[in-house]
């Protein structure tokens, strides 16, 4: 073995080791997401099942009982969200089953898409 062979062997080992670590991370993420939404997460447009619990017209807020929101790292819970469009407040009523897309908009968790199901 010359020095070059030894060097490349070291690099190969490092690459394999980091590859294994990466695979472990990915399987961990898979286990944490999608508990309530059976549809596969399709990139940035993934929607999550939720139920409308309360609508606050004065604050443009909608309280949802939501499934896991993988893109903002949140497990299932009930909480209030900002509505991106005021029209959303009129499109649904308390008790409606909906699908939502929540994103962090300027630091505020915001419903950017809302659809009845
Ligand atoms: Cu939440």
UniProtKB/TrEMBL annotation:
Pfam families (UniProt xref): CusF_Ec (PF11604)
Signal among keywords: yes
Coiled coil: none
Key words of the record: Signal
Annotated InterPro entries: CusF_Ec, CusF_sf
Signal peptide positions (record): 1-23
The protein's name: RND transporter MFP subunit
